[in-house]
Amino acid sequence: MPSEREIRRRIRSVRNIQQVTKAMQTVAASRMRRAQQAVLASRPYEERLRAILNELAPNADPELHPLLARREVKRAAIILVTTDRGLVGALNTNVIRAAIRHSEALPASAFVAVGRKAIGQLRRFRQPTTAEFSGFSERPTTGDTSIVARVAIEEFVARRVDEVYLTYTRFINTLRQVPTVRRILPLAPEDSAGRSAGGSPPATLQYIFEPDPESVLEAVLPRLIELTVYQAALDNAASEQSARMVSMRNATDNAAELIQDYTLAANKARQGRITKEMLEIASGAEALAK
Questions:
Q1: C-alpha R_g of the chain
Q2: In what order do the strands lie in the sheet with 109-114?
Q3: What is the pTM of this model?
Q4: Domain region containing 206
């Protein structure tokens, strides 16, 4: 059994760790609020642009733009979005597992790694990687994510891949973040977005393109891809801060429980030491009396 001094030393060490985790929890909570506001503010724009695609797609000829072209899938690209730092629980593990599991169902695949955790794990698993990006997982900007979207568009237009998937962690709330895999190329209307609340398909709208369909699609479709990747980065940033806040809160609570256990053990050791000293004093007094 460790001595009382050693137990007291452990208590001080755990208490110092608890102060660090408490501070990290506070910082993560502050950053989570900003990230949550950003993701909730930008989500309606992405959903509205997706709804516009759903309305335009039935009237658009796939031959008018290469991003609409569908072809036999021989090779696919997967954009894997993770965090740059750890201390986020199972957040990165779940999204990486979902991406690799999805890649196993494809004929062939290559990854575009976004985040240091994705880069490290893909190298560890020896997965083929087309490009690597890092350094903006906590505060992504359109300038950062547009480069990722441009790589995906170039790979698809050059016919090096036939489909592009985006894998990221979708932010639902503070306690729930869901690994999500969605196809972003070729562009196609989504069934869930193309139905009304009653479950019936919306009325078909007829559009007049000015100046021409090619110019309209050339302006809208690349922007939709960039916005989709940007929205995924915002979701991942909000999920990262939420997961880190929860992890640090759990670490703080575990440290408090450990301090209680060590305090109880120290008290027992102290009581045992006092009892031993009292027995020694009583034994000495009895020996002197004889």
A1: 28
A2: 129-133, 109-114, 76-81, 163-173, 176-185
A3: 0.84
A4: 30-245
